[in-house]
Amino acid sequence: MSTLSRDEVAHVAMLARIQLSDDELDHLAGQLDQIVEFVAGVGEIAADDIPPMSHPLPLSNVTRPDEVRPSLTAEQALSGAPASELQRFEVPRILDQD
């Protein structure tokens, strides 16, 4: 017997903006109940000696260190720009807001 009521399934369908027939609501109530049971079962399987993790394999950050290095001056960067103002690229306005 489903612990999720037909009304609860209808409410979730309404929130998801899915139109379901009466037969579909009855059918999905049982399926969603099974899904909830399976998810609850995962919590029972988890052992206390296993730390929570977001990924099954260890991940490492592959970005380079943030170090100050020589780069273009503002004048050099803006030298090829069609328009600039206050050491910034000037682009056409796309919104009417100030």
How would you portray this structure in words?
It catalyses: L-glutamyl-tRNA(Gln) + L-glutamine + ATP + H2O = L-glutaminyl-tRNA(Gln) + L-glutamate + ADP + phosphate + H(+); L-aspartyl-tRNA(Asn) + L-glutamine + ATP + H2O = L-asparaginyl-tRNA(Asn) + L-glutamate + ADP + phosphate + 2 H(+). Keywords: ATP-binding, Ligase, Nucleotide-binding, Protein biosynthesis, Transferase. With 98 residues, the protein is mainly α. It has a domain at 6-45: Histone, subunit A (Orthogonal Bundle), CATH 1.10.20.60. 40% of the residues lie in helices and 4% in strands. It has helices spanning 6-15, 22-45, 74-78; strands at residues 84-85, 88-89. Helix 1 (6-15) packs across helix 2. The model has no long low-confidence stretch (mean pLDDT 85).
Estimate percent helicity. 25-40%
Q: Which CATH architecture of the domain at 6-45 would you pick?
A: Orthogonal Bundle
Report the oligomer.
single chain
Give, in order, the helices and strands. Answer: HHHEE
Give me a quick take on this structure.
This protein is mainly α and 98 residues long. It contains 3 helices and 2 strands.
Topology:
Elements: H1 6-15, H2 22-45, H3 74-78, E1 84-85, E2 88-89
Antiparallel strand pairs: 1-2
Organism: Luteipulveratus mongoliensis
EC number: 6.3.5.-
GO molecular function: asparaginyl-tRNA synthase (glutamine-hydrolyzing) activity; ATP binding; glutaminyl-tRNA synthase (glutamine-hydrolyzing) activity; transferase activity
Descriptive labels:
single chain; 98 residues; mainly alpha; Histone, subunit A; two-stranded antiparallel sheet; 3 helices
